[in-house]
Write a structure and sequence with these properties.
The longest helix has about 35 residues, at about 270-305. The protein has 3 domains: about 5-115, Orthogonal Bundle (Butyryl-Coa Dehydrogenase, subunit A, domain 1); about 115-215, Butyryl-CoA Dehydrogenase, subunit A, domain 2, CATH 2.40.110.10; about 225-380, Butyryl-CoA Dehydrogenase, subunit A, domain 3, CATH 1.20.140. It has about 375 residues and is of the alpha+beta class. Strands 1-4-5-8 form a 4-stranded mixed β-sheet, with helices on one face. Strands 2-3-7-6 form a 4-stranded antiparallel β-sheet, with no helix packed on it. It has helices spanning about 5-20, 25-30, 35-40, 60-70, 75-80, 80-90, 100-110, 225-255, 270-305, 310-340, 355-365, 370-380, and strands at about 115, 130-135, 140-150, 160-165, 170-175, 180-185, 200-210, 215. A hairpin with a 5-residue loop joins strand 4 (about 160-165) and strand 5. Helices cover about 50% and strands about 15% of the residues. One of its GO terms (cellular component) is cytoplasm.
């Protein structure tokens, strides 16, 4: 199946990727990503999910997943900044007033980012929140609590916070990052995805107007919203695999040495076993990239279908499970295999070839692969 993709969006993504690639090694070594964030915010990519009905580009999920995939080839941590940004651009429609919605859209058009703070430490599961929004007499809220893995928080203009209200119901809010009482701590110490800005967020009686707070549940969120967010993670994994494959192939081509046992060959490129290994991984990467596009197209169909029927939503879930599982496997495998293609020289720390593996290994921990395979197997066995 073919999918219409705006070539201008792809050109923007590729130009941004190339700019990020020029500084990726420096960022990975120093841990300083301000310049990379500036490249992203000046790229023109941040407004892509503003609906066409509101004068925005109205990019589809197929186009958005291509953006994630392309950027992740150079710096998947920076690509991950777009996951909460695009996801909560889609949620702006749920704000309680025209003024609140237009304020967000105006900032997005100006290249300002939205970050996300949902996860906490200490609870039994992801939705076991201790962050509380206390309603005031005028209808506004005071927010207090602490979040971990606040993805994209460094340098963002807005941050979305999941919490509970006084009745224990889950709510969502948009809060400016310069709000009094809001503190972002740059303490993300992961071995990979260093550019994702996933530090700690502290809220100390932060005032939040009622128009920027709304109920959050599967019944109220946009159609296929959560699935689109998960597919963004899969797209990042595919991009890591593509970047690792490209790096490994370039290393093989550039090598002028072969193992002693292969002295009959003029270069590594002539090694038939190595050709098989590279070809096998290339086929896997191409296949999961195609599956990624197909699943994104199904999500587009679900989003465009009022009251999407259960068979269509089931198709979304099945495609997502397969894509998530396979993209994680391929990303981890290719980023590992590239070392065997050129040998010990690739382990030189100055090359930082391990960044592909560190990014893949870190990012794929976000969603346990074994559970996605198990979920898909359960569906197959119980049809």
């Amino acid at each position: 199946m073919s999918h219409t993709i705006n070539p201008e969006f792809i050109a923007l993504a590729e130009a941004t990727r190339d700019a990020l690639a020029n500084i990726a090694l420096d960022g990975d070594e120093s841990g300083e990503y301000a310049a990379a964030r500036e490249i992203l915010e000046n790229s023109g990519l941040l407004a892509l999910r503003i609906p066409a009905a509101l004068g925005g580009p109205g990019a589809s999920q197929v186009e958005i997943t291509e953006v994630f995939r392309i950027l992740a080839q150079a710096d998947p941590g920076i690509a991950q900044l777009l996951q909460p940004h695009y996801g909560f651009t889609d949620a702006v429609v749920m704000l309680g007033s025209d003024e609140a919605r237009e304020r967000l859209y105006a900032d997005i058009r100006a290249g300002k980012r939205i970050a996300n703070a949902a996860a906490e430490r200490g609870g039994r599961h992801a939705a076991d929140f201790s962050t509380v929004f206390t309603r005031q007499e005028d209808g506004s809220y005071l927010a207090s609590g602490q979040k971990f893995y606040a993805t994209g928080s460094l340098g963002a203009a807005w941050i979305t916070v999941m919490a509970v209200d006084g009745e224990g119901s889950v709510i969502m809010s948009f809060i400016p990052t310069d709000a009094p009482g809001l503190e972002i701590i740059d303490d993300w110490s992961g071995m990979g995805q260093r550019g994702s800005g996933s530090g700690t967020l502290r809220l100390s009686e932060v005032a939040v107007p009622a128009d920027f707070v709304f109920a959050w549940s599967p019944a109220t969120r946009p159609t296929a919203w959560a699935e689109a967010g998960r597919l963004a993670h899969a797209a990042i994994d595919v991009g890591i695999a593509e970047g690792a494959l490209r790096y490994g192939v370039a290393s093989v081509r550039a090598s002028n040495r072969v193992p002693f046992e292969l002295a009959q060959y003029a270069s590594l490129v002539e090694d038939p076993i190595l050709r098989f290994q590279v070809g096998k991984e290339s086929a896997a990467v191409r296949a999961v990239a195609a599956l990624l596009r197909e699943t994104a197209a199904v999500i587009d169909r679900a989003e465009a279908t009022p009251d999407a029927p259960e068979p269509l939503l089931t198709e979304v879930r099945e495609g997502l499970l397969a894509t998530k599982a396979l993209s994680a496997d391929v990303s981890n495998r290719v980023s590992t295999e590239l070392f065997s293609w050129t040998g010990a020289r690739t382990a030189d720390r100055s090359l930082r070839a391990d960044r592909f593996w560190r990014n893949a290994r870190t990012h794929t921990l976000h969603d346990p692969v074994r559970l996605r395979y198990a979920d898909l197997g359960q569906i197959e066995l119980n049809r």
